[in-house]
Amino acid sequence: MAVSSAAVTVATSATLLSAADTDSVAGQSIYVTNGDAAAVFLGPSGVTTANGYSLAAGASLPWRVDLGIGEALYAVSAAGTSAGAVKVLRTGV
Asked: What are 4's strand-pairing partners?
């Protein structure tokens, strides 16, 4: 199992954090930390600040997100702001 990491700048429109499109065996496990001073909201490609899972500034998800084949995780920052680097650790890539 391979591991990768990234710092993703999240915009005010849905920004792709990770996808499991190329893994045809077991998908991916994703760990997310919000490294910015603004909250971000997690969800599918249509995520908004109204329907996404809120991740406070400086917080980490207390669990991993398991992506199945073809699934993806997106984030969006609060309207009028652009979040800094959201840290993403991927396993199973």
From this structure: 90
What are the pLDDT digits (tens) for 6-41? 899 888 899 999 866 554 445 689 999 998 888 999
Instruction: Determine the longest span between alpha carbons in the chain, in angstroms.
Output: 39
* Spatial distance between the Cα atoms of 45 and 21, rounded to a whole number of angstroms: 14
Strands 15-19 and 72-77: antiparallel
Cα dihedral 89, 86, 57, 91 in deg (nearest 10): -10
Question: Rounded to whole angstroms, how far apart are CA atoms 67 and 1?
Answer: 15
Q: Which of 86, 11, 4 is nearest to 48 (CA)?
A: 11
